[in-house]
């Protein structure tokens, strides 16, 4: 490999875009060429600084409103709040119906609350030194670590080959209960997979919600509730969940 | 009242495309270097995306939106080229603020590190196209080479060499500035 080639390919190496064979070739060249080695080190340092700096812009709220306003809209339905306001104003709904509606309202709020707690737990985990209790890329180290700490054994699956690197596990608290968090990385992004027990063994299909700019994909399977939270795009998070479920399926059957 | 189909389509579009608003706006800011032009471009991008949403079959949503935004921005470049006076040499002037002010220190950016981020943003803004676009798509919008190739309509090999060039230029500008500061 010539230096000219290496000067281009070393970027693909930095970005994890090379297959194993080409990666080895570039690494071999860098090992034997001080100039290219220096360039590689300098570029890696620059990439590190860039990743640590927030270079994104946030769209102004007015822009979001303008775009929302340009989408076709349904006729205004009574919102939950206006239903409740109706009660406050003493509307003529019977007491029995009222209880039913309130229960429905509360259950929805409950899900919102848990979603917001899951997102908060994700945010907390991003603070320095808070991400991982057991640091390991080895699923056979992370999985036993959870033993005795939880009333469930969270499935720990290495998805490195699928582009999501297992980096460790953590105990967290959601809905006033200890919950397992398995931590993955996609490039510089953290994916927290929260796992808790549920009495409902039915499969519930994955669904993505967005809160405070984070995507959260939640689903249920094999008596467990899962929430995958990250700042990666909704499509990438869906890919993560698909790969996780495929690997789970392979594990169970194999 | 709009037909039910339209409502469902709008809802699907909202769920699929709106989560990327900040990503699209970020790219627009770097491409156009002007906050209000960027807002207009992003709005136009979402209008066009909604119009073509029926025929959308991939690539992934993010590269697709970026591809539409690029077309909108190219039209804006063409419009600018007809303006009497070019403002190419003073990027800050586009924000209608005197260049001796910290124009990027708006309340919407974080207080911490904002100074560093502002300096780095200026260095990136100064990169020539198509290198800047490739760099922003990779380093700030976090697209893979394949996704960048989809968004800009160029082969992956071209993406790779543009990126190498962009990073080399950025590093040269960066070190030159640090030398000056000494």
Automatic annotation (TrEMBL), chain A:
Q: Where are the transmembrane segments?
A: 83-106
Q: Which Pfam families match?
A: zf-HC2
Putative zinc-finger domain: residues covered: 3-37
> Does the UniProt entry include the keyword Ribosomal protein?
no
Q: Where is the signal peptide?
A: none
- Provide this UniProt record's keywords sorted from A to Z: Membrane, Transmembrane, Transmembrane helix
- Where on the tree of life does the source sit, at the highest rank? Bacteria
Question: Looking at the keywords, is Cell inner membrane present?
Answer: no
Q: What is the protein's name according to its record?
A: Membrane protein
Automatic annotation (TrEMBL), chain B:
Keyword Transcription regulation attached: yes
> In what residue span(s) does the RNA polymerase sigma-70 region domain sit?
20-81
Q: Which organism is it from?
A: Bradyrhizobium nanningense
Q: Does the keyword Transcription regulation apply?
A: yes
Record GO terms (molecular function): DNA binding; sigma factor activity
The lineage's top-level taxon is Bacteria
Coiled-coil stretches are none
Protein's recorded name: RNA polymerase sigma factor
Which stretches make up the RNA polymerase sigma factor 70 region 4 type domain? Answer: 119-170
Q: Describe the family membership recorded for this protein in Swiss-Prot or TrEMBL.
A: Belongs to the sigma-70 factor family. ECF subfamily.
Instruction: List the InterPro entries hit by this protein, alphabetically.
Output: RNA_pol_sigma-70-like, RNA_pol_sigma-70_dom, RNA_pol_sigma70_r2, RNA_pol_sigma70_r4_t2, RNA_pol_sigma_r2, RNA_pol_sigma_r3/r4-like, WH-like_DNA-bd_sf
Q: Kindly give the PANTHER family that the UniProt entry links to this protein.
A: RNA POLYMERASE ECF-TYPE SIGMA FACTO (PTHR43133), RNA POLYMERASE SIGMA FACTOR RFAY-RELATED (PTHR43133:SF25)
Give GO terms for biological process: DNA-templated transcription initiation
Keywords in UniProt for this one?
Sigma factor, Transcription, Transcription regulation
């Amino acid at each position: 490999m010539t230096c000219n080639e290496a000067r281009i390919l070393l970027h693909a190496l930095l970005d994890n875009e090379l297959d194993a064979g080409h990666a080895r070739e570039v690494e071999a060249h860098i090992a034997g060429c001080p100039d290219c080695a220096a360039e590689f080190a300098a570029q890696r340092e620059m990439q590190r600084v860039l990743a640590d700096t927030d270079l994104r812009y946030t769209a102004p709220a007015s822009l979001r409103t303008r775009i929302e306003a340009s989408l076709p809209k349904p006729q205004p339905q009574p919102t939950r709040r206006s239903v409740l306001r109706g009660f406050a104003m003493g509307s003529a709904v019977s007491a029995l119906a009222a209880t039913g509606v309130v229960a429905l309202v509360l259950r929805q709020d409950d899900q919102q609350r848990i979603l917001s707690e899951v997102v908060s737990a994700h945010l907390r985990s991003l603070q320095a030194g808070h991400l991982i209790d057991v640091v390991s890329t080895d699923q056979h180290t992370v999985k036993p670590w959870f033993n005795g700490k939880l009333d469930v054994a969270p499935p720990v699956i290495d998805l490195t080959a699928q582009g999501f690197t297992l980096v460790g596990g953590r105990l967290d608290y959601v809905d006033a209960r200890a919950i397992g968090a398995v931590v993955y990385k996609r490039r510089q992004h953290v994916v927290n997979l929260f796992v808790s027990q549920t009495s409902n063994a039915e499969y519930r299909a994955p669904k993505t919600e967005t809160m405070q700019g984070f995507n959260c994909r939640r689903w249920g399977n094999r008596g467990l509730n899962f929430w995958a939270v990250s700042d990666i795009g909704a499509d990438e998070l869906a890919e993560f969940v698909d790969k996780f479920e495929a690997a789970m399926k392979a594990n169970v059957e194999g | 009242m709009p037909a039910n189909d339209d409502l469902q389509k709008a809802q699907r579009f909202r769920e699929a495309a709106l989560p990327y608003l900040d990503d699209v706006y970020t790219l627009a800011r770097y491409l156009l270097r002007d906050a209000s032009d960027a807002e207009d471009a992003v709005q136009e991008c979402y209008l066009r995306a909604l119009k073509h949403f029926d025929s959308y079959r991939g690539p992934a949503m993010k590269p697709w939106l970026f591809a539409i935004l690029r077309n909108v921005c190219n039209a804006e470049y063409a419009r600018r080229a007809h303006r009497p006076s070019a403002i190419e040499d003073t990027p800050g002037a586009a924000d209608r603020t005197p260049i001796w002010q910290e124009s990027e220190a708006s309340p919407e950016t974080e207080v911490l590190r904002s100074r560093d981020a502002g300096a780095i943003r200026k260095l990136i803004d100064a990169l020539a196209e198509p290198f800047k676009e490739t760099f922003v798509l990779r380093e700030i919008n976090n697209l893979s080479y394949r996704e960048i190739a989809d968004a800009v309509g160029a082969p992956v090999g071209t993406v790779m060499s543009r990126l190498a060039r962009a990073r080399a230029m950025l590093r040269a500008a960066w070190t030159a500035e640090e030398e000056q500061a000494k």
